Amino acid sequence: MEDRERKPLQEEEEIDLYELWLRLVRRKRLIGGVFLAGVLTALAVSFILKPVYRSEASLLPVASQPTTGLSELAGQFLGIQLSKEGPSAKILALLKSRTLRERVVDKLELVNVLVKDPPPERDARTVAVEILKKMISVTKDRKTGVIKLSVEHEDPALARRIGEALIEELRKALREKALTVARANRVFLEAQLKETEEELKRELRELARFQRREKIIVPEEQLKGTLELYAELLSKKVALQIELRKLEGVLSPDSSRIDYLRRQIEAIDNQLARIENSAEGFSAVPGLENAPEKMAGYTEVLLKVRSLQAKYETLRKLYEQARLEEQREFIYVEIIDPPSEPDVPVKPKRALIVAVAGLSSLMLGIFLALFADWLSAVRERRREGQPDQTGS
């Protein structure tokens, strides 16, 4: 019985499909007209749209990572190693930065080129920077590490010039900005070295005045042990300060490691203060507590001078080491493919536009054909006096 019920249904479906085909054939002119109109309109629009060209460049970040020096002081004193961020992330951040786009806009004078009619309530330069952001595309190949820079514009020559300006400004920014740990250490040590040098000059002048005034000479060998201890403590303090600066940019302020470093630096400061300001620091000089007042005063000034000299020598060595590591850790960009001047536009894609428009027009034509056929059938039944049964 089920087979008997299924058989009329299949025949009805076949009849419906056949009738549908006949309806479409009857309205083939309508379908063809809509299809042809859509295709011709899309083709005309694709030719009206201005062509957009894409200039591409391939960059390879290169950075030599130092294996010894200041970057390993943390391992020597604390037994830890810090992970290092690759150069690709820094270069990607610079290429996408607003600062770099502003430099390119100013260098190539793109405000009048990109902003034809600037809004009165906004700055034209800001609008030009925003437009330039939409023109630039930066991607990275995870397998090879190559960075691809793309610039799209209606003028192929201008697209190439913008790409070249971006690379040039990128190289300048890499030279100017302190992007590496070694460079940050060098700047920090350079400031400490200059400050110590000025302080040492003041103390040397004071020592000379004291000697001329009091005419006192104290044997310097008696201070050797104290000075060696002072230099050792100072060297360890500088290393801990450098390590603390690097960890503060990675860990949270309440980290146990940061707290441990601060306590270590504070303990060393207390020891240095006792050597510099307390009578205990001069225990290397025999019988100092019983020495004449002039001898004690000379010894105090001399110890300050020697302490500053030891500090200066330690900082100078670390500064020279930081300069060497900065040169080895320098980041630069190797241009694999320079920006090219394209001769074939990437937009508009006429074939794609025509294909999408043709498919859409065909579907619209079929719909209009079926609607027109249904409307004709309704009118025919009404003329013959038959009720409309399309809703049943």
Query: Shape from CA axes?
Result: elongated
Q: What is the spatial order of strands in the main beta sheet?
A: 2-3-1-4
Helix content: 55-70%
Uncertain segments of ≥5 residues (pLDDT<50)? 11-15, 66-71, 73-84, 278-292
Tally of individual helices: 13
> Strand percentage, roughly?
5-15%
Strand count: 4
Arithmetic mean pLDDT? 76
Euclidean distance between termini CA atoms = 27 Å
Sketch the topology as an H/E string, one letter per element. HHEHHHHHEEHHHHHEH
Q: Largest sheet, if any?
A: 4 strands, antiparallel
Total domain units: 3
* Protein structure class: alpha+beta
Cα radius of gyration in angstroms: 41 Å
Q: Which keywords apply here?
A:
4 strands, 13 helices, elongated, alpha+beta, single chain, 392 residues, 3 domains
Please characterize this protein's 3D structure.
With 392 residues, the chain is of the alpha+beta class. It contains 13 helices and 4 strands. The chain has helices spanning 2-26, 28-48, 73-78, 87-95, 98-108, 111-114, 124-135, 156-176, 181-214, 224-248, 256-277, 293-328, 350-383; strands spanning 53-63, 136-140, 147-153, 331-337. It comes from Aquifex aeolicus. It is found in: Cell membrane.
Outline of the structure:
The protein is of the alpha+beta class and 392 residues long. Helix content is 66%, strand content 8%. The protein folds into 3 domains: 2-49 and 350-383, no CATH class; 53-180, no CATH class; 193-328, no CATH class.
Task: Annotate the secondary structure layout.
Blueprint: H1 2-26, H2 28-48, E1 53-63, H3 73-78, H4 87-95, H5 98-108, H6 111-114, H7 124-135, E2 136-140, E3 147-153, H8 156-176, H9 181-214, H10 224-248, H11 256-277, H12 293-328, E4 331-337, H13 350-383
Antiparallel strand pairs: 1-3, 1-4, 2-3
